[in-house]
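Try this one yourself first.
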């Protein structure tokens, strides 16, 4: 899956996952306190699905600089997000000036009847969240909706709560999953829509893609699992997933987040000094490792080597502690196992803090010692062969004479 990221704003739900950027964001948010949103007014507090929400709010700029701003309208019920739309502020905010910004926001087509919070979040030109205002509104919906009852992010086959932020290596494929219930009287064909963010202190980027469509029968539950793309760059990522029916949103918006981290070490190869393994003799196995810890630092780890025969039955297992350091280095392990095949299967694993950092599997060529027949053995073999030939000749002569005697006896009896 090819993902091309585009620069966008940093939304509050994404901000919550990047704890190691807190000092940076705090400094920015403090500066942004001079630009505030106040006096949110709506024409009504009661609406129907697809209605237009109109009103305005005041933007106050108490700073000495101007700025281009944007604002985001989010529709929330019981902590779940049901819609999110971004708008540009109509003009640049000038120093020591106020702006009244008009609102015109269309409510979703598909939504449940109930009480909602309409939140307006202000953003700086660089996409950082400033402050916000919110109002409670009542919506009479069409109640054509599916319920996301649970959502998870998967790590090593385990379903984790979306509040957790698991770590993955660049070659890993994070998976997100949601349990969905269809309370409607008809079946619905759902298409997951995923928005993906990559975040660092200076920018936030995103892209959007779709999962495979799935038919969800009336009054039935189903699981929806979507693979995220492989993201080779180290950093923090977040995703939002919602479900579409005939192009319109029909669910809440579920949020997920994770980190991509680099491996501290990678096993590049396993070999012997001359490229061969000698059965029953001491062999030095040379394990090449590429370390990626910061220069001058080390990390304690455990290296385990397994040798297996052609049926993958374990012949030998041994472990030893190692120190991972920056750059390429080698570790030697002495091995001696009997083997009567022309190759050995070898597997190496590096673990630290009970987690596998890297694993490597390959083969070692085996030197088979062929037995050479000596002079004495050769003479003995020749004698045995000669005796065998003589025995055959004697047997033939005896059999021939026996046949002549038998024929003469038969002839005499007949006379």
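Now uncover the answer:
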């Amino acid at each position: 899956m090819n993902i091309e990221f585009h620069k966008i704003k940093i939304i509050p739900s994404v901000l919550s996952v990047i704890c190691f950027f807190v000092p940076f964001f705090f400094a920015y948010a403090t500066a942004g306190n001079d630009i505030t949103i106040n006096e949110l007014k709506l024409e009504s507090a009661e609406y129907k699905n697809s209605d237009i929400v109109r009103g305005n709010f005041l933007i106050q700029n108490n700073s000495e600089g101007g700025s281009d701003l944007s604002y985001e309208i989010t529709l929330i019920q019981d902590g779940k997000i049901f819609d999110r739309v971004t708008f540009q502020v109509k003009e640049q905010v000038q120093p020591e000036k106020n702006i009244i910004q008009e609102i015109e926001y269309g409510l979703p087509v598909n939504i449940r009847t109930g009480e909602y919070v309409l939140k307006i979040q202000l953003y700086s030109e660089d996409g950082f969240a400033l402050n916000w205002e919110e109002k409670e509104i009542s919506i009479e919906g069409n109640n054509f909706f599916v319920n996301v009852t649970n959502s998870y992010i998967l790590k090593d086959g385990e379903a984790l709560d979306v509040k957790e932020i698991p770590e993955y290596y660049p070659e890993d494929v994070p998976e997100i999953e949601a349990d969905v219930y269809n309370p409607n009287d008809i079946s619905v064909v759902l298409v997951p829509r995923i928005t993906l963010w990559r975040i660092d202190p200076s920018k936030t980027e995103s892209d959007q893609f779709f999962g495979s469509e799935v038919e969800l029968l009336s009054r039935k539950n189903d699981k929806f699992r979507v693979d995220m793309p492989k993201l080779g760059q180290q950093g923090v990522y977040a995703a939002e997933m919602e479900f579409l029916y005939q192009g319109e949103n029909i669910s809440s918006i579920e949020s997920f987040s994770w980190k991509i981290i680099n491996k501290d070490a990678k096993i590049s190869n396993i070999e012997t000094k001359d490229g061969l393994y000698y059965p029953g003799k001491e062999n030095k196995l040379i394990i090449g490792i590429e370390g990626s810890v910061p220069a001058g630092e080390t990390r304690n780890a455990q290296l385990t080597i397994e040798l297996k025969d052609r049926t993958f039955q374990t012949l030998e297992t041994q472990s030893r502690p190692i120190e991972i350091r920056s750059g390429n280095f080698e570790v030697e392990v002495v091995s001696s196992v009997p083997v009567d095949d022309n190759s050995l299967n070898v597997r190496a694993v590096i673990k630290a803090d009970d987690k596998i950092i890297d694993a490597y599997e390959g083969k070692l060529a085996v030197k088979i010692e062929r037995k050479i027949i000596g002079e004495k053995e050769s003479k003995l073999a020749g004698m045995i062969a000669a005796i065998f030939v003589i025995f055959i000749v004697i047997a033939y002569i005896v059999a021939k004479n026996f046949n002549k005697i038998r024929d003469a006896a038969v002839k005499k009896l007949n006379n």
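Discussion: The CA atoms of residues 238 and 257 lie 4 Å apart. DSSP finds three helices and 27 strands in the chain.
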